[in-house]
Amino acid sequence: MKMDLGTSALLALLLLANKSKRNDEVTPFAEDKDYVNSSGVILSIEDIKNSTVILPELFIPIYEHDSIIDITYRALRTEKIPFEIRGIGREASISMIDGSLQNIANAWLYAIDGEFPVVPPGIYYPKGGEKIQWVFTSSEGPVFNLDTDYFTKKMNNLINLS
Description:
alpha+beta; single chain; 4-stranded mixed β-sheet; 3-stranded antiparallel β-sheet; Ferric Hydroxamate Uptake Protein, Chain A, domain 1; 31% strand; 19% helix
């Protein structure tokens, strides 16, 4: 493809002006303006049902408009832990982490500083310093020891029960 000098100059200018960075890596860069004031969260993932720590506590930087799903995605991708996400935005859900697949009796729940929010992880935007913990458990598991009605009541927090 042949370009005139004006088109070439415009293309070069646009390429230089595009300083956007991918936000899918855990390691922050000082010059990354999307990185929110050197803040981050502590993320951990545990399969309580099978007594397995999938991801020990890990500092994850927060970017502007990051949801729990965004942060979890970056951590799992960076650590090369297999996972599946279904849906987008408000409806985004994680259906599997490291082979632990949820179904009607098993679920992935997230907690913020030990409390289980009532909003879906796709629209919860954490603040720096919060501790996010994902737990995989069942209605008969050691964490809740509750019946399936508990999971129905906490459906906004649950990730894809189907």
